[in-house]
Task: structure prediction
Amino acid sequence: MSVEPGEEALWRAAAEVVVADGRVRRLEEQEAGPRSWQGYARVLWEAARHRDADVRGGLELWTADASVGAGARQVLQAWSGVLKRSEAALASWRAAAPAARSATSVSGACDAAAAVGNVQRTGQELAAAVLRPRWAEPFDVWAAVRRGWSGVRDQGGEATAARAAAMWAVEAAWGGVRVRDVRALPEPALVAGAGFASPAQWADAEFQHRWQQYVLDCCARLEEALGAATGDGGDGWQLVLVSGWPLTRKRDTELAYLAQYEQHGPTVPFGGRRTGYGVEPDHAVVLAVPRFAADHTRDDRQGIVLGPELVAGTAEPDELDVLALLRGAYPYLPADAEGDGPGARPTATVLHRLYGTVTSYEPGTGQVGFSSACGRPAISVPVHRIVALTGDRQRRSVGQVPAHEPYEE
Result:
């Protein structure tokens, strides 16, 4: 049974409305209360706004059609309603999340405490003393304390609650654990040896005392550093390229507040991220953020690239500045071929290998559909911009193929 193009467009758009409505309903039904920025990064990534251009574009072609026009207008109205509710839910989440300056102050306090050399070293020494599975990595006790403490402080919680959260985070891994190497315990001992049935029993008690004292000491340093934080930062706004988008991984916790700021330009592929036994797409975006937030990210050299400052009094950044930053993450952008006419010829540009899959070809327009390796969304590449199509027999395993690389042969 064949389906007319207009009917197919309505069916696809209606499916988008149903999916978006379900996501918005789940957000609307959540109990009121504080919200984390990492949670916001997750719901933002799935928000209806990212599908708006495609849904509207697919429907507006048919709104004046004699047979499906009324249906197209009705579905378009339904989509607009879902989009409005989605934006309201996002705004509600932002209002309940911590202030950005609070997030940067807490993160800055963590960095200041970590800069004291013996904080992490002491944690590593404790980890070396305990039993663990043969192939397991040592437990990063400092990272656990940092996450537990900052998670409470980010939400405006008090020092006592933050200390309890840090203690619980370590107890979940080390509560009741056995010591495998007594010699790895620091000296002098803090627990007297009398009253224990064996050296092993004493060692376990010494270790439990040691890690609890370690957590208390770390929290005291964190509170001291937070109290000394000024929260100052420069005025104005600045562009930043954020790779590893969306900021939903555990390591992104202290930068997830950046998700609240406006994105400029498209989302571009940035390879893949490992999840359990597989790989899922990774991305990069350009955001306009306050200067104090840009200053806060300066130490994150792997995930953040600082761009130019926005000219005072301007509402939007220069498009060329945005595109220049994005090309640092992925060399081919949708805007690169927007000005091409029917008779466009290849230009003298730098050549890159783009790794991925050809998904379609339209002979009439000369457009090739291309999906980046581990990346989305798919892009359309004019044939005249393609030098060659070939396979890569040397790198076919998942995670081995890069998103792109310069062509140097």
Observations:
- Residues 353 and 405 are 5 Å apart (CA to CA).
- The longest strand covers residues 263-275.
- The chain has a mean pLDDT of 85.
